């Protein structure tokens, strides 16, 4: 349910976004625009809490000994946590009222505790209020996640 306060806050946020884009045309979404990177320390807490929050109780996401028995040097992040971090990255940039319409990601190198992942995005297409972003999240081993996300901008998101 949307309250009058929510509608007012949304209206103010949309107006502020439009004003910022009008004031700085370089900030308007356009193909080739690179989003600021997001650096994330990969901690045991992040890996385990992400697995628990997504109800992924596979032992390789919380039990280092079991992960070792299965050939992994340590526990590692699950795809659902990665998906959430990709979503956070884009909504942090485009605003909490933006809507992720399609997320197509693929995992590569595992995210192990003690590493750092840097998420980067490049806008590849803009069609009205819809933006397509190529996302890459890299760690010390290589690309952890690659993919494309379609985002509906906040000005028209409902």
Protein described:
The chain is of the alpha+beta class and 158 residues long. Helices cover 33% and strands 29% of the residues. The protein is built from four helices and five strands. A hairpin with a 2-residue loop joins strand 3 (116-127) and strand 4 (130-139).
Topology:
Blueprint: H1 4-23, E1 38-41, H2 44-53, H3 64-69, H4 79-94, E2 99-107, E3 116-127, E4 130-139, E5 142-152
Antiparallel strand pairs: 1-3, 2-5, 3-4, 4-5
Task: Give a nutshell description of this structure.
The protein is an alpha+beta fold and 158 residues long. It has helices at residues 4-23, 44-53, 64-69, 79-94; strands at 38-41, 99-107, 116-127, 130-139, 142-152.
Major sheet summary line? 5 strands, antiparallel
What is the structural class? alpha+beta
The rounded distance between the terminal residues' Cα atoms is 12 Å
Spatial strand order of the main sheet:
1-3-4-5-2
Keywords:
single chain; 158 residues; alpha+beta; 5-stranded antiparallel β-sheet; 29% strand; disordered N terminus
